[in-house]
Specification:
With 231 residues, the protein is an alpha/beta fold. It is built from 10 helices and 8 strands. A 6-stranded parallel beta sheet has the order 5-4-1-6-7-8. The mean pLDDT is 93. The structure holds magnesium ion.
Length: 231
């Protein structure tokens, strides 16, 4: 049987992180620049953390400042480490744990991440829900500011780690925004859109993933993944 690789975005796809990570970024920008981040970086959804930090700094007049980027990253990871475990409104996308368990029972099926989260932040989020052990590698927000690059990197890392070759048609990206769909289509990977909130349905439909689910309890998902039906 051909080897398959499932790559998962995190926010809105595996979990809802709630408002805390944004609040941490806002606190940092307020402390360092006395500026409200909400007015300088509005388009967070589906963007990498590195992209958001760089865009916000640029709007404040700090272009090409890796020292400031590194300082913000350090502070953000420290806040995630200390406080995210207490974040009250973070929760799992329904059915995700059962779906990942099913994946683990499948022969020649491997899992990975493709997320705009910085690597430490990604694992802090997953660890809170006991999902971290499912994912040994991936592409992360500190690898590149461009999500399209992350999907290619995630596949390369998985191929090395598992000593495998994954053909594009056997790589599936699971994500909740058009950015996730685009990073799958850029390399001819398959994409499962996870329309985990009402507002995600239309943008996902327009970006045309191969399959769309509301959550992992979707009765047609396994059939689609096993090639038993077409969308
Ligand atoms: Mg997402």
């Amino acid at each position: 049987m051909k080897k398959r690789l499932f790559l998962f975005d995190i926010d809105g796809t595996l979990i809802f992180a709630g408002g805390c990570p944004r609040i941490y970024f806002s606190r940092i920008f307020m402390e360092l620049f006395q500026q409200d981040l909400r007015f300088i970086a509005k388009d967070f959804l589906g963007r990498t953390d590195s992209f958001i930090i760089r865009q916000a700094l640029k709007k404040l007049g700090y272009s090409n400042r890796p020292d400031l980027e590194a300082l913000i990253v350090r502070r953000f990871i420290a806040l995630m480490n200390d406080e995210f475990i207490h974040c009250p409104d973070s929760t799992l996308v329904p059915g995700v744990r059962e779906f990942l368990e099913w994946c683990n029972t499948q022969e020649d099926l491997y899992l990975g991440l493709i997320t705009g989260n910085l690597r430490p932040s990604a694992y802090i989020k997953l660890e809170k829900f006991g999902l971290d052990a499912y994912f040994e590698s991936g592409g992360f927000g500190d690898d590149s500011i461009e999500r399209n690059e992350l999907s290619r990197l995630a596949v390369q890392r998985a191929e090395k780690l598992y000593d495998a070759v994954f053909f594009p048609e056997d790589v599936y990206v699971f994500g909740d925004t058009p950015h996730d769909v685009a990073c799958a289509h850029a390399w001819n990977y398959q994409c499962v859109g996870v329309a985990s909130t009402e507002s995600r349905v239309r943008p996902l439909l327009e970006s045309q993933p191969q399959w769309i689910i509301r959550d992992y309890n979707d009765s047609g998902l396994i059939d689609f993944l096993n090639g038993a039906s077409a969308n």
